[in-house]
Design goal:
CATH topology of chain A: MetI-like fold
Mean pLDDT of chain B: 90
Function (chain B): Part of the ABC transporter complex PstSACB involved in phosphate import. Responsible for energy coupling to the transport system.
Order of helices and strands of chain A: HHEEHHHHHHHHHH
Number of helices of chain B: 11
Number of strands of chain A: 2
Membrane topology (chain B): Peripheral membrane protein
Number of helices of chain A: 12
Oligomer: heterodimer
Subcellular location (chain B): Cell inner membrane
Largest sheet of chain A: 2 strands, antiparallel
Structural class of chain A: mainly alpha
GO biological process, one term (chain B): phosphate ion transmembrane transport
Helix content of chain A: over 70%
Largest sheet of chain B: 6 strands, mixed
Radius of gyration of chain A: 24 Å
Strand content of chain B: 25-35%
Strand order of the largest sheet of chain A: 1-2
Keywords (chain B): ATP-binding, Cell membrane, Membrane, Nucleotide-binding, Phosphate transport, Translocase, Transport
Chain lengths: ~300, ~260
C-alpha cells in the first residue's frame, strides 16, 4: 500500500517539474517581450515622439537625461543600415547557398555527405567575434586596397559580406534538408519523361523544396538582423546614410550595443535604444510568423 | 540459352519487331542480375514480364529506357535495339526516353496541378503555346480515360487524387510525350481491384497506338491483358511465348511450377 503510494507520488513529481520548467520558459519569453514593449513604447508614450519620426527621420540627437526631453530620435539611418546590410547579405549568399545545397544533394551526394556536411556544421559553430575579426583584418583592408574606399574599407559592403558568410551555413543546411526530403519518385518520373539533370533540378526538385528553402532564408535573415558584434566591427559606425556600398554607416544592433551602456536609464536616449530593440523583436517575430505561414501553406498544398 | 524456349522469335519472324534484345547481360558490381536475355518485343502488342520477386524482370524493364543509367555500379553488355537502332550505342538517353516512356509501381505525380503534370513533358520539349498544350493535355487525359473525371479540376493539385486516378494521370503524363513504347512497372500493385481493371482496360486500348511492356506480379493480370508473356527466373529468361500457350502448355518445367503456384 505504501509502495504504490510512492509510485503515484513519483508519477506526479516528474510531470510537475517538466510543467514548471515549460511554464518558466513561456513566462520568461513573454516577460522579455513585455519588458521590451513597455520600455520601447517609452519613446512614444513618455516623450511623445511620433512613430513616423522614429522610423523615417534621420535626425538622431536624443538628450541624455532621465526627465528632460526635446531631443530628436530619428532612427532611420540605423534602420536603413540594418535593412541594407541584411538585404545585400541575402543577395550575396543566395546563389552560393542554393548552389551548394544543390551540389551536395543532386550533383555529388557522396562528397556532400562526407565532406561538405561536416564542414558546414563546423561553420555554424564559429563564434561571431571570429567572423568579425576576420572581416576586420582581412576583408576591410581588402576592400580598402581594391576599391580605394575612403573610410579605409569599413563599409556596407564589408558588413554585408561578413553577414553573408555568417548566414551561409544556416541557409545551406536547411536547404539541403529540404532538397533531400523531395521523394526520389519525383526525380525518377522526371527522368522517365526525358528530362535532363538540370531540368529535374530546376523544374521538379527546387519547386518541390521551395517552402523549406524559404524557411532557411528567413532563418538566415533573422540571424543577420540580430547580429551585432561582427557587424559593429566592420560597418564603420558612422551616423550617416551610406552614399554607396563602400561608405560606412551604422545599424540597429551595433548602435544598441555601443550606446546602451552610456545612457541614463529611462532617459530619452536610453528609451530610444529600447525602441530600436523593440523594432528588432518585431522584425524577428514577423520572420518566425512567416516561417509558420509558409509551413502551413506547404502542408495545405500537399493535401489540396 | 539452349534451354530457353523462344518460339515467338522463330515462329513469327514476319511480325513487326519493336524492341530486339540479343544476349543482354547486366551486372550490379560483381553480381550478375541478367543472364543472356534475348527476346523480340512486338509492336502494338502487350508483352508481360512475370516471375518471382528478384528474378530480374523489373531490372530488365529498366534497361529498355536506360533508367538503370541513374544507378551506380551497373554495367551492361549485349545488344538492345529499338527499331533497329542500338539504344546504348547509337542513341542518347534523352532521345530514347522520349520514345520509350515509363509508368512506375507507385503512382508518382509531381506536386503540381493536374494540368502541369501532363504538360511537363511537352514543356521540357519546348512546347510553350497555351493552345497547343491545352490540346495535348486534353488528348492525353482522354487517352488515359480520365478526362471526364478530371476536366473540371485541371488546375487543382494532382496529390489530391485517389491512387487509381493518380496512376492514370501518370499514364497520361507519359502519353503526352508521345512515346512509341510504354513500359509499366507493376502499375497496379498499389491499386484496388476497380482501379486495376480500369488500368487493364486502358492498356488494351493503348496497344492500338503503342507498344506496351508490363511487369506484373499477378499471373491473372498477364493472362488477362498480355499478348505475349515472358517468364523470368533468377535473372534468366526461361520461356517467352504467346500468353495463352505459355499458360496452357508451359514447355519448361520451371514455368509450369511457377504458374501452377508451386513457388513464387
Amino acid at each position: 500500500m505504501r509502495q504504490s503510494k510512492s509510485v503515484v507520488k513519483d508519477n506526479k513529481l516528474g510531470p510537475l517539474i517538466v510543467r514548471i520548467a515549460g511554464l518558466l520558459i513561456i513566462a520568461l519569453t513573454l516577460s522579455i517581450g513585455l519588458f521590451l514593449v513597455i520600455r520601447g513604447m517609452g519613446t512614444f508614450v513618455k516623450f511623445h515622439h511620433s512613430i513616423t519620426e522614429f522610423l523615417f527621420s534621420s535626425n538622431w540627437a536624443p538628450t541624455d537625461s532621465a526627465t528632460a526631453s526635446g531631443g530628436n530620435v530619428g532612427a532611420a539611418i540605423y534602420i536603413a543600415g540594418s535593412l541594407l546590410t541584411c538585404g545585400l547579405a541575402l543577395l550575396i549568399v543566395l546563389p552560393f547557398s542554393i548552389g551548394a545545397a544543390i551540389f551536395m544533394t543532386e550533383i555529388s551526394a557522396k562528397a556532400g555527405k562526407k565532406i561538405f556536411q561536416p564542414a558546414i556544421e563546423i561553420f555554424v559553430g564559429i563564434p561571431s567575434v571570429v567572423y568579425g575579426w576576420i572581416g576586420l583584418t582581412v576583408l576591410v583592408p581588402f576592400i580598402r586596397d581594391v576599391f580605394h574606399a575612403k573610410m579605409g574599407g569599413y563599409s556596407v559592403l564589408a558588413a554585408s559580406i561578413v553577414l553573408a558568410v555568417m548566414i551561409f551555413p544556416t541557409i545551406t543546411t536547411v536547404s539541403v534538408d529540404a532538397i533531400r526530403s523531395v521523394p526520389d519518385s519525383y526525380r525518377r518520373a522526371a527522368y522517365g519523361l526525358a528530362s535532363t539533370r538540370w531540368q529535374v533540378i530546376y523544374k521538379i526538385v527546387l519547386p518541390a523544396s521551395k517552402s523549406g528553402i524559404m524557411t532557411g532564408i528567413i532563418l538566415g535573415l533573422s540571424r543577420a538582423f540580430g547580429e551585432a558584434l561582427a557587424v559593429a566591427m566592420v560597418i564603420g559606425k558612422t551616423r550617416a546614410f551610406p552614399k554607396d556600398l563602400l561608405s560606412p554607416t551604422n545599424n540597429l544592433t551595433a548602435a544598441i550595443a555601443s550606446d546602451m551602456g552610456n545612457t541614463a536609464s529611462g532617459g530619452e536616449h536610453n528609451l530610444a535604444l529600447w525602441s530600436m530593440a523593440l523594432l528588432l523583436l518585431i522584425i524577428s517575430v514577423t520572420c518566425i510568423f512567416l516561417i509558420h505561414l509558409i509551413g502551413a501553406r506547404a502542408k495545405k498544398n500537399e493535401r489540396a | 540459352m539452349s534451354d530457353t524456349i523462344l518460339d515467338i522469335n522463330k515462329d513469327n519472324k514476319e511480325e513487326n519487331v519493336k524492341l530486339e534484345v540479343n544476349n543482354l547481360n547486366l551486372f550490379y558490381g560483381q553480381f550478375q542480375a541478367l543472364h543472356n536475355i534475348s527476346m523480340n518485343i512486338k509492336a502494338n502488342k502487350i508483352t508481360a514480364l512475370i516471375g518471382p520477386s528478384g528474378c530480374g524482370k523489373s531490372t530488365f524493364l529498366k534497361t529498355l529506357n536506360r533508367m538503370n543509367d541513374l544507378e551506380e555500379n551497373v554495367s551492361i553488355n549485349g545488344e538492345l535495339k529499338l527499331d533497329n537502332t542500338d539504344i546504348y550505342k547509337e542513341m542518347d538517353a534523352l532521345e530514347l526516353r522520349k520514345r520509350v516512356g515509363m509508368v512506375f509501381q507507385q503512382p508518382n505525380p509531381f506536386p503540381k496541378t493536374i494540368y502541369d503534370n501532363v504538360a511537363y513533358g511537352p514543356r521540357i520539349n519546348g512546347i510553350k503555346k497555351k493552345a497547343q498544350l491545352d490540346e495535348i493535355v486534353e488528348r492525353s487525359l482522354r487517352q488515359a480515360a480520365i478526362w471526364d473525371e478530371l476536366k473540371d479540376r485541371l488546375h487543382k493539385s494532382a496529390l489530391g487524387l485517389s491512387g487509381g486516378q493518380q496512376q492514370r494521370l501518370c499514364i497520361a503524363r507519359t502519353l503526352a510525350v508521345e512515346p512509341e513504347v510504354v513500359l509499366m512497372d507493376e502499375p497496379t500493385s498499389a491499386l484496388d481491384p476497380i482501379s486495376t481493371s480500369k488500368i487493364e482496360e486502358l492498356a488494351n486500348e493503348l496497344k492500338k497506338k503503342y507498344t506496351i511492356v508490363i511487369v506484373t506480379h499477378n499471373m491473372q493480370q498477364a493472362l488477362r491483358v498480355a499478348d505475349d508473356t515472358a517468364f523470368f527466373l533468377l535473372g534468366e529468361l526461361i520461356e517467352f511465348r504467346d500468353t495463352k500457350k505459355l499458360f496452357s502448355y508451359p514447355m519448361d518445367k520451371r514455368t509450369e511450377d511457377y504458374i501452377t503456384g508451386r513457388f513464387g
